[in-house]
Specification:
The chain is 56% helix and 0% strand. It has 135 residues and is an all-alpha fold. The chain has a domain at 2-55 and 66-90. α2 (8-23) runs antiparallel to α3 (31-53).
């Protein structure tokens, strides 16, 4: 809670920037501008997450890091995932977390309904349009 109080202003500015991103009319934006919006949104969500969860460690541009190939990183990630799943299988009290978006829609709108692909075309306001005689 102290972290959220201490970072209330950055949280508010990031939330406001996300609000502006969601409400701006970007229908005529170019691909570069859309990617710029995406960049801003990701940055804002990362800032909010860092402000809520916190960040352990210091940023050091001169620090030496272990150089791994893509395959080695992929193998390490797969091993860590397998270890996590084994730990969860052994933990009797573990409960799968509920997706917050799915929970919101289920709580507010009920269970999703099956989509029907048997759609009918609405009636044409001036009768059937025919292409005969146009060409």
């Amino acid at each position: 809670m102290d972290r959220m109080v201490a970072s209330a202003f950055p949280l508010a500015t990031s939330a406001y920037d996300i609000y502006k991103l969601l409400t701006v009319d970007d229908s005529c934006y170019s691909d570069v501008e859309i990617l710029g919006e995406l960049k801003r949104g990701v940055r804002d969500f990362a800032e909010i997450g860092a402000a809520i969860v916190g960040f352990q460690g210091e940023w050091d541009l001169d620090a030496d890091f272990e150089q791994l190939s893509f395959g080695e990183m992929s193998d390490d990630l797969a091993d860590a995932y397998d270890e996590l799943m084994e730990d969860r299988e052994q933990d009797e009290d573990y409960e799968q977390p509920r997706c917050p978006f799915k929970a919101f829609f289920e709580d507010n709108f009920g269970q999703p309904q099956e989509m029907s692909w048997d759609m009918q075309m609405p009636p044409m306001p001036f009768g059937e349009f025919r292409f005969d005689g146009l060409f």
